[in-house]
């Protein structure tokens, strides 16, 4: 079973973490290390429920649910630095990257991610993918995040393609909801992917 482009697609939008980048094990390891330090357990359900949200929202929830003494902002700084230090462990998700390389120069392509600008840039640089994309929209570029469609709408605007002509590749439920809200074609990449086991911005 292979990922395919919808024949009606005129542009492609890719989520980053868990779609282009097998980064989730790194993120989870970072969160667990912080949990050991500050006294909380990072439960797997948070990944399912919140994938696509910016890191500050993960931190706010962890602080509130565990009554932590650290502020969400402080927790985010520690989490992001830990991820940046470990970004060399991130691996490409080859099944999705194959689509990127196949359609480079044939269709406009962009990245629409809930990661910070620095985290997105570091990952794409590590994976050697930066130059393939016409636009990269991060959590720092929009005020409303997935499941609001603003991230993907900005991708479409920057590519000059109508939202309904864009195909979105996503692993996150919130991202798929965001894309469907504005009539984009949506491909859930999870059934096509063999995620690695490298040690989750």
How would you describe what is shown here?
The chain has 8 helices and 7 strands. The protein is of the alpha/beta class and 201 residues long. Strands 5-4-1-6-7 form a 5-stranded parallel sheet, sandwiched between helices. The protein has a two-stranded antiparallel ribbon with strand order 2-3. It is globular, with a radius of gyration of 16 Å.
Low-confidence stretches: 197-201
Mean pLDDT: 93
Structural class given helices, strands, pairing?
Answer: alpha/beta
Question: How far is the N terminus from the C terminus?
Answer: 31 Å
Q: How many helix segments?
A: 8
Beta-strand level of the residues, as a percent range?
Answer: 5-15%
Principal-axes shape call: globular
Describe the strand arrangement of the main beta sheet, using strand numbers: 5-4-1-6-7
Strand element count = 7
In a nutshell, what does this entry contain?
With 201 residues, this protein is of the alpha/beta class. It has helices at 24-38, 44-50, 55-66, 72-85, 94-103, 117-127, 150-159, 173-181; strands spanning 11-14, 21-22, 91-92, 109-112, 135-137, 166-170, 185-188.
Keywords summarizing the entry:
single chain, 201 residues, alpha/beta, 5-stranded parallel β-sheet, 8 helices, 7 strands, globular, disordered C terminus
What's the SSE blueprint?
Blueprint: E1 11-14, E2 21-22, H1 24-38, H2 44-50, H3 55-66, H4 72-85, E3 91-92, H5 94-103, E4 109-112, H6 117-127, E5 135-137, H7 150-159, E6 166-170, H8 173-181, E7 185-188
């Amino acid at each position: 079973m292979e990922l395919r482009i919808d024949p009606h697609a005129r542009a492609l939008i890719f989520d980053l973490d868990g779609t282009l980048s097998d980064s989730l094990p790194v993120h989870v390891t970072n969160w667990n290390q912080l949990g050991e330090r500050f006294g909380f357990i990072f439960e797997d359900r948070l990944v399912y429920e919140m994938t696509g949200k910016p890191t500050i929202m993960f931190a706010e929830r962890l602080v509130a649910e565990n009554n932590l003494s650290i502020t969400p902002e402080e927790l985010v700084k520690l989490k992001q630095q830990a991820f940046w230090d470990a970004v060399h462990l991130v691996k490409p998700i080859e099944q999705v990257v194959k689509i990127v390389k196949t359609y480079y120069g044939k269709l406009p392509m962009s990245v629409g991610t809930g990661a910070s600008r620095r985290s997105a840039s570091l990952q794409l640089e590590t994976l050697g993918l930066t130059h393939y994309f016409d636009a990269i929209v991060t959590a720092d570029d929009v005020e409303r995040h997935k499941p609001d469609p603003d991230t993907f709408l900005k991708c479409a605007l920057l590519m000059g393609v109508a939202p309904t002509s864009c195909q979105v590749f996503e692993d996150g439920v919130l991202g798929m909801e965001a894309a469907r809200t504005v009539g984009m074609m949506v491909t859930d990449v999870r059934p096509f992917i063999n995620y690695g086991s490298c040690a989750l911005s």
